[in-house]
Amino acid sequence: MAMKGIILAGGNGRRLGYLTEVTNKHLLAVYDKPMIFFPLQTLLDCGIRDILIVSGRDHVEGFLRLLGSGVKFGARFTYKVQDEAGGIAQALSLAEDFVGSDSCAVILGDNIFENNLGEYVRAFGEKRGSHIFLKEVADANRFGVAELDGDKVISIEEKPSVPKSNYAVSGFYLYDSEVFTIIKTLKPSGRQELEITDVNNAYIARGIMTATQLVGDWTDAGTFESLHHANVLARKIELARQSTTSVPQGDSLESVPQTDSLARPRAHTSLTKKDASLPNESGVSRLS
Fold first, then answer.
1. pTM for the predicted model, two decimal places
2. Domain tally, the chain
């Protein structure tokens, strides 16, 4: 079976105020590229070429104009409209027909990862269950927070006022096709949304959730501070790429030949340390 990719780029982006008054957050510039290019690069680096982009009805045309069919990236893009913001899990539910019986890699459209996660996507393969990526952060209360028992994730709490750990659940998730059956059992949260945390807790309850602890940098871009961090991280990634490939600093997406990537291969996307313990059925592995 193939691994399908899904980029969730809907939502209202209200926390960014006037910046998202007339455009989708995921179309904002982050250093030298539109924000959505970064999660797209993550999927392409993982070898995923069949990708669904989910966005709101007011902005899907903008994504289509920017990205097209995917041919210039060596990929195939499909688009789906989320009529109203109803939570991450609700947006993911729109991908059921697209995914079919395959597994899927789901990434939030404002997430930027310093490391290449391809090794972990390949290790997940056709396994039953789900896999998440954790990052130790200072502001864990902004995210779903993992409670750990040693190396094992025993629960996830959504935006807790008093987090049980500093390990945030990043916006990159691997699921088998059973995820859509789980979503159908969910009830709206107090925010009247279908929460991805409830999906992940359902996998935990079944004993088929594993996790990787990220060591490389990661950020979302949902607040002004995290958007600033995203620009700093994007600049770091781009400068690392340029120093490795000797691409002149003035080169852009338009001037660099395109195949299956948004730019030439980046040095930072190679794992700096091979992890001997790839995802298993019992706990958290570490990604350097």
1. 0.86
2. 1
